Amino acid sequence: MSVQRHIKLSPIDAPPRCNAVTKVAISDNTITARKAKIIANMARANIDYLLVYADKEHGGNFEYLTGFIPRFEEAALVLHASGKIFLLLGNENLKLSQYARVSNTAIHIPYFSLPNQPMNNSKTLADLLADTGVQLAKKVGIAGWKLFTSKLDDNSQLFDIPHFILSAIKQTISSSTPVVNATHIFIGSDTAARVTNNANELAHYEYGANLASNCILNALTAVDIGVTEKQLGSYLADEGQPNTVVMIAATGDRFENANLYPGDKIVQLGDKISLTTGYKGGLSSRTGYAVHHSDELPLAQRDYLDRVAIPYYAAVVTWLENIRIGMSGKEMYAAIEAVLPKSQYHWSLNPGHLVADEEWLCSPIYKDSEEKISSGMLFQIDIIPAVKGYAGVSAEDGIALADQHLRDELAAHYPAVWQRIQKRRDYLSNILNIHLSEEVLPMSNTVAYLRPFLLDKYSALQCTNEAQG
């Protein structure tokens, strides 16, 4: 573990933006490798029939193979141990089967369509599922999106898909055929298919992480007295890309009238400010005060830097300087607990989690976790302290972990991505004085860039190279 170093608010340049970035497509070879990983995990679990559910909010496991989500409908993918795939699609997604990234047989399922649309099918849902061969299965796996980790329930029997689908499956199979939650095939273990990425996938996801950080930099620049939340929110959307989270552009007290979205509230001196946006591959988030310096805060909050922001930043630095391939999740959890004690700073979630098409995929970092942190993992630095009487603080961004082989592949096949990563590493090292291992690849331009006083556009927290005594 690295030593803690002094942290101070210093006049420093903002990180450079990487503009006009081309989105890297997922390759055919990657799709083939993804399918092979899933089939291998099915074999490991003795599952010969896997149904993967999807809707707009929960489409990542489906999209992992198909390349698309079912937008405003529901859908399902059926994968047999043989490799044969069926796509179960509603009225308005049936046409997408021909564009899917995997060879498939499409089955029209009007039950997945919007209310009052035509239901001219001649078969029940159970009969339509029988057309996929579910009645021949020896063990059926159901993958929604959620990895259940209850210590009280049988997680294999918790299903996060609509009941009408699960009921139709059970009508079609023998009562002796096991039906289990199979989300673990995709996420939540060292061997789960989606927890690690190849060079093509990292290059693909870097686009979204880069875009989110550019948006945050633009929004930070726009923070000023008299600006509305909606004006700030306009900087948090870009290039027509769909957000992976509800955008946050909030000033003052949040959630008035249960509102989650940017409104007409005007930034006033001393307001708490929250800004968040995310795209496939990464999220960027910042929280601070609309002040130039601490003297503009209420007297009881003028120690915000020492009480909240600097301890939090020390945890971010500890996270960045200590994460490494092969460490257990519990090691990282303990490292954060040591520098930012939960009892004092009241963080409650995982100090870091994986990201992909979803903002929160799963996390190997939790108390007593034996899960290993692996090459190819794509992380969000997500530590959320809550100290009563003060604004929160946030500098959430994304990094990837890559061993020498993966770094070589990324540099060779995606030189523009690699150059952007190196530019970010240089900024962290030379400006912020944060020392990353070679394995840590910043995917966002704003990794560890934190301006707690948002009207001071030229000062941010910075490490010194002196060890604390």
Automatic annotation (TrEMBL):
Residues 34-144 form the Creatinase N-terminal domain. Gene3D superfamilies: Creatinase/methionine aminopeptidase superfamily (3.90.230.10), Creatinase/prolidase N-terminal domain (3.40.350.10). InterPro entries: Creatin/AminoP/Spt16_N (IPR029149), Creatinase/aminopeptidase-like (IPR036005), Creatinase_N (IPR000587). It comes from the Bacteria. SUPFAM superfamilies: Creatinase/aminopeptidase (SSF55920), Creatinase/prolidase N-terminal domain (SSF53092). This is Creatinase N-terminal domain-containing protein.
